[in-house]
Amino acid sequence: MMKAFTKVTPYFVTLLSVVVVVIIAGSSAQADQKKGEVTFEDVLTQAISTSPLVKEIDSAIAIRLAESIETRLRLNPELQAGVGVPVDPAGDADKTQLNLTLSQPLRPSDFGARSAVSTLLSESATTEQKLSILELSQSAYLSYAKLWVLQEQKKFLVEQRDRARRISEKVEKATSAGALGKGEGNLFRAEYQKLRAQLLGVEADSARERANLLKLSTFSLEEGLPLELPPIELVGTSTESILQSVEEGSLPIQTRYELLAKVAREREKLARKDAFPAFSPQIGYQRTEDGGSFVGVGIQFELPFSNRNQAEILRRQGEATYARAKNAYSRSDAFREEVKLSLRSMEALRQQAETYKKEVIPSLVSALGSYEAQFQAGAETVLPIWQAQRELADAQLASLDLWLRMFTARSEVSILLGKIL
After folding, report:
1. What's the pTM?
2. Which of 145, 187, 298, 373 sits at a 20 to 30 Å CA gap from 56?
3. Are 416 and 339 in contact (CB under 8 A)?
4. pLDDT tens digits for range 189-235
5. Beta carbons of 107 and 274 less than 8 angstroms apart
6. Angle between the 40-50 and 182-217 helix axes, to the nearest 10 degrees?
7. Contact 184/382 with Cβ under 8 angstroms?
C-alpha cells in the first residue's frame, strides 16, 4: 500500500512550497491592507486557506486516489461451507459430511498491470490537484482584475460627472445672461444625467463581481477600499525561458499530458489483459461422520463465449488515442508557436494599455483643461469642452478594455502553461 504513494510525495512538497510562498507574500499584503489597500495576494491567500472550492478540489483528488487504491486491490478470497445429509432411506441417515472450499478469484491484470495503473493514477491525481488550484487562482485573478477595472472606471466617471455638473452650472448662468443658447445647456445637463446613470451601472457590475469573488475566495471587500493594480509583469521568468521550458518538456501542463498518456496506455493494457477470463484456484476439504477426510484442489474459470471485455477495450483505446495526441501536441513545434504567440499577444496588449495610460489619456486631459480654461476666460462656445470630454471618455473606456483583455490573456497563458506567470 505504501508503494503507490511514494512517488506522490515530491508533488505534494512542490504544492506545499507554492502555498507557503503565497502565504508569505500574503503576509506582506496584509500589511498593505491595514494601510487601506487590497492586493491580489490578499485574495489568493484567503482563497487557498478557506475557499470551499479548494475543498471541492480536495474531494475530487480523494476520488482519484480512491480509484488508485481500488484498481490496485485484488478481489477477496471466497470461502464456501456446507453440510451434506443423506437422503436415501436405505442408507445411513445419521452419517453427515462437512464440505469446505477456499478459492481466490484472480484476473490476468492482477499480475503487474493493476499496480502500474494504480501508481500512475496517484501521480496524476497530485498533478491534477496542482493544476486545479492554479485554475482557481486564475479565476480569482480575473475576478479581482474586473473589480480593479470597475474601480478605475468609477473614478473617471465621477470626475466626468463632477466636471459636467460644474460646466452645466456655468452654462446655465451664461444662458441666463444671453451669452449662450439653451441647446448647449441641455447638452451638458444630458451629459451629467448620462454619467450618473453609468455610475449606477458600474455599481451594479461591481456588486455582482464582488459576490463572484466572495464565492471564489471567501474574501469580502470593504466598500470603497482601493484595489492595487493586479500583477502584470513576468516575475522570475521571461519569454525566452518559457519557450526553453517548452522545448525541454518541463512545463507542468506537459507533465500532466505525459502522465495522462501513460495512464491511458496502461489502462488499455489492463483492459486487454482482462479480455482473458478470470479464474479461481480452489482447495477443498471434506470430512464424513465415519472419520474419513478428503482434500482436493481445483480451478474455476469463466468461459469467454460472449463477453471478452470488448466494450472496455474500445473505451480505453479511444482514451489512449486522445491522450497520446494531446501529449504529442504539447511537445510539438505547434504548441511552442501557440505559447509564443500567446505571450506576444499579452505583451502587445500591455504595451497598448500603457500607451493609453501614459500618452493618450494625459494629452486628452490636458486638452480638456485648456478648453475649460478658454471657456472660463470668456469663450463663446462650450462645444469643444463637450467634444474633448467625449474623446476622453472613449479613451478611458478603451484603456480599461485593453487592461481587462491583457489580464484575461495573462490568465489564459498561465493555464496554458500550467504555471502562474
Report:
1. 0.83
2. 145
3. yes
4. 898 999 999 999 999 999 999 999 999 999 998 877 899 999 887 76
5. yes
6. 40
7. yes
